Amino acid sequence: MVVNEIRGDRRTDAAEPSDVLTRRASVPDATVAYGDLPDQVADVRFPRHGAGTAAPLVLIVHGGFWRARYDRAHTGPMADDLAARGFATASVEYRRVGQDGGGWPGTFDDVARAVDAVPGLAAGVVPGGIGDVVLLGHSAGGHLALWAASRARLPASAPWRLPAPPPLRGVLALAPVAALALASRQGLSDGAADALLGGPAGDLPERTALADPLALLPSSVPSVLVHGTADEDVPVEQSRRYSPAARAAGDDCARIELPGTGHLALIDPLSGAWPAVLDALAGLLGR
């Protein structure tokens, strides 16, 4: 995988309003539970071709600034498109800020558990099983994906620590909140990072050290960050801060910037940005 900075030359229609948050998608082929709580589930869609052979699994962590009013349903259109291209997909739900158990530490409990358990659960229901696993996260989900891949860097006392990096082919982070302390200082989405942590990052250094992907490098998991330069929700500075730090720490990390692209285009298979997302996914899988 190439580990350089890339600026896409494709201008997209991403700055235009998108209905991807409400667009209808197919009914999932299966829903698996990785815990006992209602939000500890993942919707699985089977690959639409290549039956009988192991398909790559795209494990999707949705965004929405970690808030309860956003859920996994809006990943349906992208999951449908990926399934049509021969991928298995699993769209993870987790407890979020504004609901019982969401935020610190419940959101992290759920995502860690999901990343560890859902691939095996999906393998049990997808015809032909699954092959390589790519963890894909958008926005706040990008933060959680990068964080989940970095848990081997957590101290031994942390409940989410892994003895080795998780068995992922890579992380595809779309417009990620990749630097949580910076997001707190930037006040993104009316203090969403502070709501996740339970207070300003600067006032909670111990929590921030456990929750910020930028503080947990190297992850030792390859990653590609795709970010639009016209993103008004999560500024491209987030990815510009993370990617050089990851490479300096020894990680295989690429950043792709898409000129004129906004925030939701990266999860919209009808947008002009979607081919760049597919190319990044193919790159992680060595295709």
Automatic annotation (TrEMBL):
Boundaries of every BD-FAE-like domain copy: 43-241
Source organism superkingdom: Bacteria
Pfam families reported for this sequence: BD-FAE
Keywords associated with the record: Hydrolase
Keyword hit for Hydrolase: yes
Statement: the UniProt record of this protein carries the keyword Hydrolase: yes
Family matches, as InterPro entries: AB_hydrolase_fold, BD-FAE-like_dom, GDXG_lipolytic_enzyme
GO terms for MF: hydrolase activity
Protein name: Alpha/beta hydrolase
